[in-house]
Amino acid sequence: MARLPAALSGLPLPVIGAPLFIISHPQLVLAQCLAGVVGSVPALNARPAEQLEDWLQEITQTLDAARRADPQRFIAPFAVNQIVHKSNSRLEHDMALCVRYRVPIIISSLGARSDINDAAHSYGGVVLHDVTNVAHAHKAIDKGADGLIAVAAGAGGHAGVKSPFALLQEIRQWFDGPLALSGAIAHGGAVLAAQAMGADFAYIGSAFIATDEARASQAYKDCVVASSSDDIVYSNLFTGVHGNYLAPSIRAQGMDPQNLAQGQLSTMDFGEHAPRAWKDIWGCGQGIGAVTRVQSVAALVAQWRVEYEAARVRLLGAANRV
For residues 121 and 103, is the Cβ–Cβ distance under 8 A? Predict the structure, then answer.
């Protein structure tokens, strides 16, 4: 395991909640942090841009109050996801707010920029950058990121295609810093498996969709519960970039998930009724077979802790029999 910065040390369960586009908001982030796992939100979920300050105020003040009320309770830090891409016209505005509110963890995506990393480091923040291959991992660390999120095959949204075994192994050959694994993790045993493979944390998103606090429609939550890995479709049709989506949501838009065209969907094919990625076409990862009901974040994390400890006991028992 890597030596971890203070913001990432001491988690009772080594889980970082992935930022879910549209779905993550303060209620979900607070529930995650209060349950003892890192909660995160995409900055772009706050719309208009001015709403981000309200969200950061609410999150920081609520967590600070909880820590004062019960100093013995472990309350996890939170993270804000920044899309580091030239198409994000809000980046400087949103990052300035993160600096003002001293956001403990910045999750950067779709590009690596030294100035964003420097801004986080100016107040002691930690930057984790998500990558799908080793070349991008090298670039992120060279630009000053503190840690990496390895997005492997099976992750929700814009997932990679590499096996987690290959991706983690190749990253750990040269990088000994903080490392999270994303891809089909929705069970406490899978969290332990991620650690056994060399990760410090499991990076979990899709399972949190089916929680009471998630800002997702009831139909979306119910679809996650009813689906399995057989219902996940990997396609570049909806955004131009390959991602994992729920087949029932594709069928609901009048398309055959088994016969999708390649390349980005043309709105000319649908006119005003073109399906929108993330809102109409639901992103989701392959691990959802472990999600059997909609429940609170606290109950879900408690379940993972039980599963995690049971997996550790099984592993120790197997080792003792060797």
Answer: no
Left (φ > 0), alpha (ψ -120 to 50) or beta: where does 138 sit? alpha
Q: What is the DSSP letter of 235?
A: E
Structure tokens at 267: 């709105």
Q: Give the pLDDT confidence of 248-260 residue by residue, as tens digits.
A: 999 999 999 999 9
Check pLDDT > 70 for residue 321: no
Beta bridge partners of 83: 109
SS3 category, 189: helix
**This prediction's pTM:** 0.94
Amino acid at 71: P
Rounded to whole angstroms, what are the CA distances from 18 to 157, 186, 268, 300, 310? Answer: 11, 12, 33, 15, 24
Helix (H) or strand (E) segment spanning residue 202: strand 201-204
CA-based torsion, 298, 304, 309, 310: positive or negative: positive
Pairing of strands 243-246, 105-109: unpaired
Q: What is 78-106 written as a DSSP string?
A: EEEEEE-STT-TTHHHHHHHHHHTT-SEE
Quick check: bond before 5 cis, omega within 30? no
CB–CB of 321/202 below 8 Å? no
